[in-house]
TrEMBL record:
Protein's name according to its UniProt entry: Class I SAM-dependent methyltransferase
Family matches, as InterPro entries: SAM-dependent_MTases_sf (IPR029063)
Signal sequence residues: none
Domain of life: Bacteria
Any Pfam family hit: Methyltransf_23
A Gene Ontology BP annotation from the UniProt entry: methylation
Entry keyword set: Methyltransferase, Transferase
GO terms, molecular function: methyltransferase activity
Organism name: Streptomyces triticiradicis
């Protein structure tokens, strides 16, 4: 913390305005100027300084961050989240989600039970690929990401080849190489989702498949929980694409959607996460290098006491998520994600 603090404070001394591009007046998906503010919030996970807004296009329903993070902003807010300080914490979190990863791999079985090659875009530390290999032992899994997590995944043997960089820039060298390309909770991080989809079309061979899983901005929980809905994940999530928009764009790119899933990709954590975010927001901050000084002992004690007092609410949220909401998630319209499987014709 002490080693990182001077660098963060130097970045913040210039203010946060440089972390944002000029606001848009038109929708980045359809070009309409009919925009309304959907949400205003702060960074509820890392608690880095800044305020963020999501706008909704009243013409097509697309939700997007406006103003959007600049290159400097992306670097600042991603720093120490997936790598650095956050590498072990996020690695442990993602590494423990084998059931979800198996479900994602199994979603391909009805359409291609034995793909030879699979590229996972936004692979992070490669935990999906390691688990998917148990479902598809004859498949060679490669990973692509713009963080150093993909290099860790290659060193640990979770992927056969790790590509680090921007997918649209790497796509020409990967042209028609893969039976399957997957984008699990990747597209919402992209500055240009349409460009990413065109890159995917380039990398998938004719007759191959693309799997896209993203947060569902039409989920009722997104409205009910407001800023406490975890999938908003500001400021990292830049775009939220309604399922009808994505289906239409895939068709324009020459894909046929062969499966649309809502219940299967639902992650039963909405209420638990909302309680945790609210508690963490109310409590004094823990030590992080973007604070000017570490919290003193009384503030640490208050934080601990508040979080301990919140344990019953966290337990209740967990039980409701898993046993009340999850079985009825799709029927109630509260699924927090959807998944499309599309075949390139």
């Amino acid at each position: 913390m002490a080693a990182l603090r001077p660098g963060y404070l130097a970045d913040l001394a210039e203010g946060t305005d440089r972390f944002f591009e000029p606001p848009r007046t038109t929708c980045p998906w359809c070009g309409s100027g009919r925009l309304t503010t959907r949400l205003r919030t702060t960074d509820l996970l890392q608690h880095k300084p800044g305020r963020f807004a999501l706008d909704r296009c009243d013409a097509c329903g697309h939700v997007f961050q406006n103003p959007r993070l600049s290159g400097a902003g992306l670097e600042f807010y991603y720093r120490d989240f997936y790598d650095g300080l956050g590498e072990k914490k996020l690695g442990d979190t993602f590494g423990g989600r084998t059931g979800m990863y198996r479900d994602r791999a199994e979603s391909m079985l009805p359409y291609d039970p034995a793909p030879k090659t699979w590229l996972d875009v936004g692979t992070g530390h490669g935990h999906f690929c390691a688990t998917a290999r148990e479902v598809l032992p004859g498949t060679a899994f490669d990973g692509l990401d713009f963080t150093d997590g993909v290099e860790l995944a290659a060193r640990e043997g979770r992927v056969e080849h790790g590509y680090r960089g921007a997918f649209p820039e790497l796509a020409p060298e990967l042209a028609a190489r893969y039976d399957v390309v997957s984008m699990f909770h990747y597209l919402e991080h992209s500055t240009d989702p349409d460009r990413e989809l065109r890159a995917a079309r380039q990398a998938v061979r004719p007759g191959g498949h693309l799997i896209v899983e993203v947060p569902d901005p039409e989920s009722r929980c997104a409205r009910l929980l407001g800023r406490w809905w975890l999938p908003w994940l500001q400021p990292q999530h830049l775009h939220f694409v309604p399922v009808a928009n994505l289906r239409h764009r895939l068709a324009e790119l020459g894909f046929t959607v062969v499966a649309e899933q809502h219940a299967e990709p639902h992650d039963p954590v909405d209420l638990l996460a909302a309680v945790w975010l609210a508690l963490d927001h109310a409590a004094p901050r823990e030590d992080v290098p973007w604070l000017s000084r570490p919290p003193n002992a009384p503030r640490r004690a208050v934080r601990t006491a508040l979080l301990v007092a919140g344990i019953p609410a966290l337990v209740l949220g967990t039980l409701l998520d898993r046993f009340a909401v999850r079985p009825l998630a799709h029927r109630l319209g509260v699924s927090n994600a959807y998944r499309l499987v599309a075949r390139r014709e």
